[in-house]
Specification:
Length: 367
């Protein structure tokens, strides 16, 4: 009888649902769901892949109430800048350009004429544009920009139109190299360089220069380039308004434009920091070189990347307007990516990262 009782005890023990790390992380994700943020997608992975977890929580399309799932894609907005910056640095490695080249040497005559109305384009270098220190007004800061986006969301933008808005609706921020001032317009200019020197679309040029296909990034594409990637795209919300049918061209030419998922964003950051993107290790050092100005910059921005603190730990990251952020914490060799479908407010770092780190620490074995 004793052996039978012991056997039954083991069976019952096996049926008890003990909490796991994934269950704990799932609860953290669920805690981020609010009336203003209906959904979240998230991935965490260590550099050695001993820890790898992805999750989803909340609702996708509020009109029908369907649930989000982890494979879904989303507009990453300005996280695209990390890809663009890396592509420009690959062009530098190939000898197509120098970071000290004036931008006038590389853009079309039409765009040179537009920018030259307000800017000394023979003095603005590629390095300055990569660092947002060229003094370019950000066309997205013009009130007219969001008047058009919100009033006629189906409007099809062009790169030329956005460069004109930069010149016609704003003034130069300051002298080239003299200050930090975040500008989508600068990366719209850089997107043209990628197209020019690869002879491909921005989507094709970035994929070629960064080897994204060889990295297995099958669901990382500029919108409208891959029907499968587009079909998986979630609904993303701006102040409660569903932006699913907003034209992607509002944010498409280098400042943004890529659609991806949380796992592939982690994969890309891993490839970047593990030396799988650039031919020379020194190129990553150039990308991450610290920058200082006479007046303290609002962001600790390098090239397509900026530094933040997550629970007191130094991290490299980029975020995007549509609620996306990707983080790498060197001290922990840890990568995380998230999309809040309604965005988050009040902090430079999405709250999910700090919360997940605390949860991870709870699950660490005690010494």
């Amino acid at each position: 009888m004793k052996s039978i009782s012991a056997f039954l005890s083991l069976v019952l023990l096996a049926l008890i649902p003990f909490p796991s790390k994934s269950q704990d992380y799932a609860k953290v994700l669920e805690s981020e769901i609010t009336t203003s943020n209906p959904g979240i997608l998230f991935t965490i992975e260590s550099g050695d892949e001993s820890l790898s977890w992805s999750g989803a929580a909340g609702i996708n399309d509020l009109s029908i109430g369907d649930s989000l799932y982890v494979e879904q894609t989303f507009r990453i907005a300005s996280v695209t800048k990390t890809f663009v910056a890396a592509a420009i640095l690959r062009l530098m490695e190939k000898g197509a350009l120098s970071l000290e080249d004036p931008i006038s040497k590389h853009i079309s005559s039409e765009h040179a004429q537009i920018l030259a109305q307000d800017y000394p384009i023979d003095q603005i270098t590629i390095r300055q544009i990569l660092r947002h220190s060229a003094g370019l007004f950000d066309h997205t800061n013009a009130p007219e920009f969001f008047d058009i986006v919100l009033g006629t969301p189906e409007h099809e933008w062009t790169r030329t139109e956005q460069l004109r808005m930069c010149v016609e609706k704003g003034e130069p921020i300051g002298p080239p190299g003299g200050q930090f001032s975040y500008s989508d317009t600068g990366y719209v200019v850089l997107g043209e360089l990628v197209e020019t020197y690869t002879g491909k679309s921005l989507d094709g040029g970035i994929k070629e220069l960064l080897g994204l296909d060889n990295l297995g990034l099958e669901r990382t594409d500029f919108e409208r380039m891959d029907p499968q990637t587009d079909e998986l795209r979630i609904h993303q919300y701006l102040q409660g308004r569903d932006t699913y049918n907003f034209s992607p061209t509002m944010d498409y030419f280098g400042g943004g434009g890529i659609v991806s998922n949380s796992q592939e964003l982690v994969d890309f950051f891993q490839a970047l920091f593990q030396g799988k993107i650039f031919e020379n290790p020194e190129t990553l050092q150039i990308m991450l070189e610290p920058v200082s100005y006479s007046e303290k910059a609002r962001m600790d921005y390098q090239m397509g990347m900026y530094r933040v603190k997550v629970n007191g730990l130094d991290a490299y990251c980029h975020s995007g307007f549509w609620g996306t952020q990707v983080i790498y914490i060197p001290e922990l060799d840890l990568y995380m990516a998230a999309n809040y479908s309604g965005g988050w407010r009040g902090s430079a770092v999405a709250p999910i990262f700090g919360k997940v780190l605390l949860e991870k620490e709870k699950n660490q074995p005690k010494p």
